[in-house]
Amino acid sequence: MQRLNGRRVLLGITAGIAAYKAVEVARLLVKDGAEVQVVMTPAAASFIGPLTLQAVTGRPVRDTLFDPQHEAAMGHIELARWADVILVAPATADFLARLAVGMADDLLSTLCLASTVRLLLAPSMNQAMWRNAATRSNVEQLVSRGTTLLGPDDGEQACGDTGPGRMLEPPVIASALCDLLGAGRLTGRRVVLTAGPTREALDPVRFLGNRSSGKMGFALAQALAAQGAEVVLISGPVALPTPGAVRRIDVESAEQMRDAVFTSLPDTAIFISCAAVADFRPCETRAKKIKKTQENLTLELVRNPDILGEVSALPRRPFCVGFAAETEDVAAYAEQKRRAKGLEMIAANQVSASSGIETDDNALLVIWDGGRQALSRQPKTRLAAQLVDLIADRFDAQTATKDS
Ligand code: PMT
Prior knowledge:
By secondary structure, the protein is an alpha/beta fold. The chain folds into 2 domains: 8-181, Flavin prenyltransferase-like (Rossmann fold, 3-Layer(aba) Sandwich), CATH 3.40.50.1950; 190-281 and 301-403, Rossmann fold (3-Layer(aba) Sandwich). It has 14 helices and 19 strands. The strands form 5 sheets. Strands 12-11-8-13-16-17-18-19 form an 8-stranded mixed sheet, sandwiched between helices. Strands 2-1-3-4-5 form a 5-stranded parallel sheet, sandwiched between helices. Helix 1 runs parallel beside helix 9 and helix 10 packs across helix 14. The longest helix is centred in the last third of the chain and has 24 residues, at 380-403. Bound molecules: ligand PMT. Ligand PMT is lined by residues 196, 212-217, 254, 273-277, 279, 304, 306-308, 322-325, 337, 349, 351, 356-358.
């Protein structure tokens, strides 16, 4: 199994003798299914040629902060957002010092500062430099801020000294990264997730729709991927970037969403329906723009397919999680929906001007057979991680019952 399937690793290389080993690190990560983007400090090129790394990763190496050609394609902030994890191997004493004080004077240090993802450093330096009080204090600061240190190893050094400071061997680094990224609660599980609104066309320029922004669903997709799931995100029209390690299928209407869900369903362990699917669509979509010739316009609407209901009615169906957007009697209406659609779980949100739809924050009441839990109001990104934990708990409980 490729444990890093689809994971995006930004591999930073700084100017140390161990830079030649970074080629093997990159090769092992690619072999484990990761997409690897190498970023070198300018001086690292004295130790290892960018062409070698390009050949191994299949991507041109980035090394300049102000490169008009690369900035036009994927700017440095976009690159910082692209990564699921940043690994710097080797990380020299100078680089640790620059990170500790928050410098951003080359592309790699800028990316480390601009990114919010996990940062892993594999130090490499002479033993006296590693033992120096300045390095010790830099390392302490970095670790206290959440940076993970891989190594260093103790042993013979290129300069002839013996002691701590050798970069860990590439298989050890690659396997530490796999353990970190691949050890999620949903590793090896396929999850299909819908998000955002649907648009039901009236004519070539108008549609019926709703205010769903996709924020809740996209946060869930990210949290599921962080737990190692293979995520297929089927999204209505939204203005959000695709989370790392997530396969996204864009659709417009409820019928297109239904088709995409059923095409993606084989081998799916969990189906989560977070989309605000339009319940009705116009009976006909006019081929030409409707003219304003009359005072009143009557639209005839027809029911859209109930995507979640159809999935849940399948004889061999995934674990089904629905959402309920309610303005009153949240718990009662949500439980009614859960039973009517035959769902394992439902996450109910009270929709108001400040919570639920379109907003950055949300609160949920999660209900399952025999239990419920309220998740307090907080940013959707944090809420999604808690909901994914609850889903994994119930999914594990169901799997254990089936197996016993
Ligand atoms: O996108 P955001 O701005 O972040 O807002 C998030 C959200 C409020 C849209 C989300 O958290 C949410 O509640 N989504 C479900 C909204 C909804 O349509 O609820 P419902 O009560 O109408 O539908 C019940 C369930 O059936 C939902 O899981 C829905 O996806 C599903 N459904 C509904 C109709 C339909 N034709 N097909 C469906 O699959």
